[in-house]
Amino acid sequence: MRILSKSQSALHWKIPEKYKVYILEEAEKLLDPENSGLKTFYIYDCYSPILYELRTKKVKAEHALEEMKRQKAKQIEEEIGLKLRATGDITISRNHIDVIKKLLEYPGLQVASETYINVTFKIRPDEKMIQLIEQIEDLKEKEALEEMKVLEELSRKLAAYGEAILRNMDAIGHFDLLISKAYLAIALDGVKPIISKDICCIIKNGKHPVVERTLKKKNKSFTPISLNLEKGVTLITGANMGGKTVSLKMVGLLMAMSQYGLFVPAEYMKTSLWDFIFISAGDEQSLDSGLSTFGAEMKSIKEMLDMSDQQGLILIDELARGTNPREGFAISYGIIKYLMKKQCVTLITTHFDGLAKEGVKHLQVKGLRNVDYDKLGNPDIISQYMDYTLIEIKGSTKVPKDAINISRLLGIPEEILKEAENILEN
Length: 426
Fold this sequence. Notes:
Helix content: 40-55%
Order of helices and strands: HHHEHEEHHEEHEEHEEHEHEEHHEHH
Radius of gyration: 37 Å
Number of helices: 14
Number of domains: 2
Largest sheet: 6 strands, mixed
Mean pLDDT: 87
């Protein structure tokens, strides 16, 4: 606490009270009566004359025992013609049958352990050594009892500083969190989000740090994402592999970070404070309740709808994806229409055409719309040409059919793809 308090005093900015750590002189003297400066606690001899006496006797007995062992080992080595370890034992291979037999018959050694390969012998203690060992064990027991008395007395005295110690612990926790936030902000090259009283969610060139790190390992870069969400519903459309889910999860992550007072990986961000953040993404099939993917999703959606009169952020990936397309479209449309009347900001990714009706903001992943597919050739470079930028679509523009072209690159038979294109055209 002393070091941290002095470090804080050296800072050139005013530290809020909840972060301040104070030096507790008297408490420190109790814990370090010899002023040793050790960063760990030790029960010093000066806490108790009895403790000092017990430890002195114990050390004297231990030294005497070690000297006896040393003399005994020297005598044994001379008599058996073998060298013992510093620990007073010796290991013999079972291949040396005569040596093992000799040591088994030698009175100064006894078997310590054995395996199918070796036998280990150790010094057999004589009467004087046994007496010293028993004396040392007795002193250790008395030492432990006296240490307990010292700790009880020390705890009683420290209790007077309990409130101040707890306050310092709380301050250290707050200060540690503050420093950790600063390190994270630097690591992410983050910016401080602007908190607005108006309902909004504006992100300029935002990044998902986990996805970006994964891409860097593959020598690829993350396409920064910009979007402006307002009260009501915004849809993101585009083919698979187009980054819709990453965009949605990035929004959720950056929004959650801002609520926790963290800097965010973006060039600029402005947001409201939310009563709740809801996200539905991935396969939510529940084995425990026996619900299907669709059933589990609707159960989660129902819980969200019950909160939708509050000021919340709602993020849904592929709404109603777990049922047939016709009913999925109808349910999605109903939910979107319902949420349009609420105070929430809602972002939904979808494959369904026609959901972006009047009043619904429509964002679309650029995808592969500007790419010459004949020149791509290798499916491994799809991600290299995929443009993950979100653009706002006006009117009734349909979801782009990058999926067919991606399927073609991945080797799906042309007969199947031609049939799919005919269905779309007609």
